[in-house]
Prior knowledge:
235 residues; 6-stranded mixed beta sheet; 4-stranded antiparallel beta sheet
Amino acid sequence: MEPLIEVRGLRYRYEDGTQALDGIDFDLFPGETVALLGPNGSGKTTFVHHLNGLLTGEGLVKVCGLTVEPCNFAQVRRKTGLVFQDSDEQLFMPTVLEDVAFGPLNVGGDADSVREAALKALAEVGMENALKKAPYHLSAGEKKRVALAGVLAMRPDILILDEPTTFLDPPARRDLIHLLRGLPQAKILITHDVSLASALADRAVFLRKGKVVAMGTVVEIAREYDWEAQPGPRD
Length: 235
């Protein structure tokens, strides 16, 4: 089976000289969910930002057979849907419907097909009754669902979720886990929460100082590294 994401020897150094990624090898296969675990500053968010060209380092990065380079950025970004840790960074239009429709409109969709795609995405996340609401009037859990709908409206092959349960209360967290389990896309899950990773991920990759130091089940990684299940800021 061909991987949806193939990364070989990825290195990235920030302008201040910090070696953020130091030779990352990684694969993501169709239908699977992989949890990225590791302490703050280990390079998790830096890594996923290479998967849609937000950052560009040294090494091979391929998404759905496309090398991640400027000439392919538009195609790659339609195949990878990034859901930010803070939904307020992703929601900026006056209404929920306009927010979810923004992406498809921005890539040239016609009004009728875009509205259909947006309504379908809102139905997928259970927010079809909120189209006329202002995003800032929503709860944290509702904002997360709308942000996810905005990504789903682009019909990506891969979802990348950065600390998706940050700011969510326990009921909203349970609802989001149930929702994510039902989505068919392959997923990369950045999290400090072992219980969340255990609920969603087929396997885990542990990063430290920009290197992959272990791969296995979430339970194996948590046991080997005495990993604490607590949220943290993005690195």
